[in-house]
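User: I'm preparing a small set of examples for a lab meeting where we compare how different chains pack in three dimensions. I only have the primary sequence for this one, and I'd like the structure in C-alpha cell form so I can line it up with the others. Please keep the answer compact; I'll paste it straight into my notes.
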Amino acid sequence: MRKSPIRLFGTCAIVLMSSLALAPAAQAAGGKVPSSKVCKDKENPPKDAVTKGGCIVADRVKGVCVNCHQIAGAAHAGDIGTKLENVAARYQGEEGKKRLRDQIYDARKFNPNTVMPPFGPNVMLNNDEIDLVIEFLLTL
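Assistant: Understood. Below is the C-alpha cell output for the 140-residue chain.
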C-alpha cells in the first residue's frame, strides 16, 4: 500500500518537530554543555533543569565553571580545577547530591585554601541556580 505524499510529509514534519523540541535537553543530557546557540535562544529558551544548568555552567560570566574546569563540549575550558566527568558516579544518592551542593555553594568548607569561588556566600549564583547546575553536573 502506497502512502500519499501529504501523509508522508505530515509524518516527517511531526518527527522533525518532536526532535527539535527535545534537542536542547538531549544535548545537555548527553554529557556535554549545551551550545551557546541553545542557551541564548530568546524565542525558544531552555525549559528543562538540565539544559538550564548546563547553560549556567557554560556561561563564562555567570557560572564561570568552564573558566577553570574541563567539561565535554566546552570550547576553551580551563585546567585549574578538576575535569568534570563521571560526576554522577562520584556523587551518588542524596548524600552525594548534598555533598556536591555544599562543594559548589562554598568549597572552603572542604578546603580552606581552595581557589574555587564561594558561589553561595558571594551570591554569584542563587540557590535555584546552584540546584540547576547540580542537575546538569549529575548528567556527566
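A couple of notes for your slides: The CA atoms of residues 6 and 12 lie 10 Å apart. Residues 4-29 have pLDDT under 50 and may be disordered.

User: Perfect, thanks.
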